[in-house]
Amino acid sequence: MKLNEIAKALNLECESEVEISGLNSLLDSNENELSFLENKKYAHDLEKTKAAAVFVKKEVALKVPENCIALICDEPYLTLAYASKLFAPKLIETKGSDCIVKDNTIIMDNVHLGKNSTIGENCTIMSGVFIGDNVQIGDNTVIYPNVSIYRDCKVGNNCIIHAGTVIGSDGFGFAHTKDGKYIKIYQNGNVVIGNDVEIGANCSIDRAVFKSTILSDRVRLDNLIHIAHNCKLGEGCILTGQVGLSGSTTLHEYVIMGGQSATAGHLEIAAFTTIAARGGVTKSITTPKKQWAGFPLFEHRQWLKLQGKIAKLLK
Q1: Which of 74, 133, 165, 229 allows an S-S link to 114, with CB 3.0 to 4.6 Å?
Q2: β pairing state of 190-193 and 154-155
Q3: Are 142 and 148 spatial neighbours (Cβ–Cβ below 8 Å)?
Q4: Alpha-carbon dihedral of residues 151, 21, 86, 28, nearest 10 degrees?
Q5: Backbone torsions φ then ψ of 237, nearest 5 degrees
Q6: Nearest Cα to 3, choosing from 50, 47, 53, 40?
Q7: Residue 274: closest CA among 299, 244, 250, 249
Q8: Region label for 245, one of left (φ > 0), alpha (ψ between -120 and 50) or beta (otherwise)
Q9: Could you report the per-residue pLDDT of 44-61, keeping only the tens digit for each?
Q10: Whether pTM exceeds 0.85
């Protein structure tokens, strides 16, 4: 869409006819994308942005770079929510090519194959699977019954996805008006899954708001795991039953998380970290190869000592 058309739809003032291809974060935007700044603590990102235009409040408009257009509004995050609907793709494509299924792939009965999708060689797709539009699935992948893979998602080679898992469902994103009404932020990204990944039963992996939620090669997920929008899992991460990752969490290589452990959003966990069962991560972990436990989080050895002292108090 042209920027002036977007502005008109949002009741903002702008005469520029620059073409806007989509929405993105400040640091990831290119010269054809639109971004926003709501929280002042990210003002330093505004100075570095390459976005064509940015939704900003009036008081920070002067900090917008010369090559970027300030779209002044009272509530940039709410305005972004309204703008996201303008770029949301169709739920179902009615035009396009039929799904391409390559050699030696078995497709059982009652499988939906979306438009413009591709399934590689030697795959097995079991009954009840939904594969949306523009989905890519690599070679030698097994998808068990009743798995749903939403549009635009990608699955690599040699993957196993167990029954009931949903890949590419909407992330939990809303902005609210001053009177408390929640406005949906349309999740216009996708999910990208690497090679040799195994995903257990009844997991939910949300698509990104912008760009991709990423599971790198050799990740292993147990059953009943939730991965929120824009998370990134490095190579070889292992998540056991009922782990939950909040949005924009980054796990570096070979992180292990025990059952029912969880993270707050927008943090990073260093490589080769272990989080014990029911551990709650509320801040980034920057030192690799350490073990942690509890909530609030302690180094594992300290946590064991603490539990011992508490036990003595009860005697």
Answers
A1: 133
A2: parallel
A3: no
A4: 80
A5: -65, 145
A6: 53
A7: 299
A8: beta
A9: 899 899 999 999 999 988
A10: yes
> Rounded distance, CA 143 to CA 119, Å?
11
For 107-130, what is each residue's pLDDT tens digit?
999 999 999 999 999 999 999 999
User: What residue ranges define each of the domains in the chain, with the CATH number in brackets?
Assistant: 3-86 (3.40.1390.10)
Among candidates 250, 246, 272, which has minimal Cα distance to 261? 246
291-293 and 274-275 as β-strands: parallel, antiparallel, unpaired?
Answer: parallel
Q: Given the structure tokens 């009741």, which residue do they identify?
A: 11
Beta-sheet strand order (sheet of 69-72): 22-23, 33-36, 53-56, 69-72
Supply φ then ψ for residue 313, to 5 degrees: -65, -25
Report d(CA 165, CA 121) in Å as an integer: 22
| Phi and psi angles of residue 282, each rounded to the nearest 5 degrees, phi first | -110, -10
- pLDDT at res. 288: 98
- Say whether pLDDT at 315 is over 80: no
Q: What is the pLDDT at residue 283?
A: 97
Checking if the pLDDT of 175 tops 80, the result is yes
Residue 10 structure tokens: 């949002």
Q: Which of 166, 171, 125, 174 is nearest to 148 (CA)?
A: 166
The pLDDT assigned to 200 comes to: 98
Q: Are 18 and 8 in contact (CB under 8 A)?
A: no
